[in-house]
């Protein structure tokens, strides 16, 4: 279950729902209840708030109905990951990164809400191979790749901001987000990858009569650009660059050992429909339905900026849940909340290669072939139960299950990775309030994924390095996985209505087939006003 994990998610949850009052005409009125920063964090990380967060993430028009208090946070974080052979080759073997982020949520009036966020991340991505491109999940499989690879230094900035307003039964909102990134390597092959990623959203919602529910509709666009340059300073370098086309196949005409300069341009759109509550009440329900498409084009800048490949990725998502909250109701199971959360998602990518003429100057396009397919489907169900053991102790347990399917295929030559998986797990969370006002949270999770595969990779050439990477990726994607995680977080009240937050989280994945284990540690410390 996607219940917030630790102080990091405490901070990320500042937009979660809290009790609101709604006037007869539907205008939002702020709750005047004074809450300390620790109380806000505690409430926003609760199970009821989790369902409100899930509903609110659908569109910016939900923002006026979220927090009745202003909220500002600043935090420092670090991530250490040692993944070994448990990730696909394009994702490397781990990372060591640090970040600082600041965010603010402000209710300027009963009808106006604004928010903003800024983040800077710096660090190192370890042993990235077979992808001289950032955002492989977005640009793949059409990337230049080499077997040598190495550590990439990363610098990344993120900014976002939004505005939402309400009048009578209507609410509306707009939001924009921008990400700028630089990845580089100081030895051959010397990658320099620059990313620019801009997103915009607009939405509106309307309350359904005098009910506490509203329906909303929104849409967004995405403009993506990347330049990926590779240089060799050693004149005797024999590192071969491959123009990858999926599952170990290559575009031989543009493979070699010279410098490769690539550009990607993408344009995407998405639409979302939402049904959610505008008033916090014991029982909660939400449903979000969305779909979108991303068209990504690849250009070779060293060859008259010719367009070599393009992909179209369609996504669909259904996210719904309900929560029956019986806290304080002596006629029912006092202190118990229970519910269900369902998420069904699909992603389908079609990859097309342009067929070019023999001219070495103009590279005329004489045809195209759609040769690559990737389809990912996922079905997840969580059944959470929360018990208020004492006024200071809260326990949440969730039984989680998932079913997924994965297909990646090239038609010529025919190669295929196909698997289905079933996952079962349990999640626990215990919250304790000390008399001093300090709040402590302990969390744990354990799961097992069983995978059944029917791969067709017999014709992969093991004499070429791309073939070895393809077989490794197939083993990773088809492995059984045992996962365990634990985290501890503390929120400490300070002077002047400030709270100090600290969090430490650990996760371990063990893969079958001799692939080994992966460990990840996440540390965060911050202040909340």
Architecture blueprint of SSEs:
Layout: H1 6-12, E1 21-22, E2 28-29, H2 37-44, H3 47-56, E3 71-82, E4 94-109, E5 112-128, H4 136-139, E6 144-145, E7 150-167, E8 170-184, E9 190-207, E10 213-231, E11 242-246, E12 249-250, E13 261-277, E14 284-300, E15 306-325, E16 336-356, E17 365-390, E18 393-410, E19 415-433, E20 439-453, H5 465-477, E21 481-493, E22 499-511, E23 516-528
Antiparallel strand pairs: 1-2, 3-4, 3-23, 4-5, 5-7, 6-11, 7-8, 8-9, 9-10, 10-13, 11-12, 13-14, 14-15, 15-16, 16-17, 17-18, 18-19, 19-20, 20-21, 21-22, 22-23
Order of helices and strands: HEEHHEEEHEEEEEEEEEEEEEEEHEEE
Q: State the major sheet.
A: 18 strands, antiparallel, barrel
Q: Hey, roughly how much beta strand do the residues contain?
A: over 45%
- Kindly state the percentage of residues in helix: under 10%
Average pLDDT works out at 88
| C-alpha geometry | globular
Give the tally of β-strands: 23
Given the structure, what is the number of helices?
5
Specify the structural class.
Answer: mainly beta
**Low-pLDDT residue spans:** 1-33, 329-333
Could you explain how this protein is built, in words?
- Strand 14 (284-300) and strand 15 (306-325) form a beta hairpin.
- This protein has helices spanning 6-12, 37-44, 47-56, 136-139, 465-477; strands spanning 21-22, 28-29, 71-82, 94-109, 112-128, 144-145, 150-167, 170-184, 190-207, 213-231, 242-246, 249-250, 261-277, 284-300, 306-325, 336-356, 365-390, 393-410, 415-433, 439-453, 481-493, 499-511, 516-528.
- The chain is globular.
- It is built from 5 helices and 23 strands.
- It has 529 residues and is mostly beta strands.
- The strands form 3 sheets. It has an 18-stranded antiparallel barrel, surrounded by 4 helices. Strands 6-11-12 form a 3-stranded antiparallel beta sheet, covered by helices on one side. Strands 1-2 form a two-stranded antiparallel sheet.
